[in-house]
Here is the input.
Amino acid sequence: MHRRRRTALSVSVALLAAAPLLTACGNDAHPGAAAVVGGERIEVSAIQAQVREVRDAQESTPDGAQLVKSTGQLSQAKLNSMIFDRVLQEAADEAGVRITRKEIQTTREQAAAQSGGEKQFAAMLLQQGALSAGQIDSAIRREVLLNKLAQALGANTMTPEGQQVVLADLTKTSEKLGIDVNPRYGSWDYKQVRLGEAKLPWITQVTQQAPEQEPSDA
Here is the structure.
């Protein structure tokens, strides 16, 4: 693996860690929904589709069995990312932040070049970030948008103070939207802007000095 290049797209590591499995049932006020964010549903079927894409990609690799075993909380991780994306987009809209397809493509090309090419880049993201080829652009979009939001907020995310500025803005946006999660996936932590106890160090996406964290699934 290209460990020296891992900060090129730190989202590749950050997206893998997932919430511990929570089995509480409770009353499902939104049948078929994994979560409702700002009144908009995230369907269980959408989570399942993303998981299937990753599993198919993992199983096609020589070390597929180990990859599957190490990503046992994948449904929670994917839901976590989908909720976070909606919160981030709302915060960006409020800040007047926009990104273009060109910015996403340029960032992807640069990251792929640093990783030895598109094939190696995709393989790295599958192993380190549990991302299928079709999910890479969404992850890069998240990275670019989060960086631009930080810039719009005047936050230096190389410092703890800057990170807290971004976190506070996303917390405020989360609370405004209101996030209702199906109990089987856990609950949304508004202060940490993540699903339950998810070990998702999203702030490392904009902090290259942050310590790299290996994926872990309890």
